[in-house]
Q: What sequence folds into this?
């Protein structure tokens, strides 16, 4: 798995995410996150006020969609997090976001 990935939103903006080793964000800072499968497809995109919460659907992602990695992006501004989340959902249409 790559230590960093870049995801392009529908707006054309590019967002850089860092691998959370062992699917553990190891921080309580606010941010955005994504789950990827082994091929690099985004399964879920999310935003949270505490990145520890990024693992809330990790078990489901592994069992139902073969999730292989969790990536995070620190983003303290609530407005920025929401805009980034919406931008990525529009571009990537992750399967788990459709199921929610």
A:
């Amino acid at each position: 798995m790559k230590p960093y990935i870049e995801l392009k939103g529908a707006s054309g903006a590019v967002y850089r995410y860092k691998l959370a080793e062992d699917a553990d964000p190891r921080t309580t800072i606010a941010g955005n996150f994504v789950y990827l499968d082994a091929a690099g497809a985004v399964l879920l995109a999310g935003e949270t006020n505490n990145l520890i919460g990024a693992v809330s659907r990790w078990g489901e992602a592994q069992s139902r969609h073969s999730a292989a990695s969790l990536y995070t992006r620190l983003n303290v501004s609530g407005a920025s997090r929401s805009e980034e989340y919406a931008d990525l959902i529009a571009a990537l249409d992750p399967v788990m976001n459709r199921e929610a």
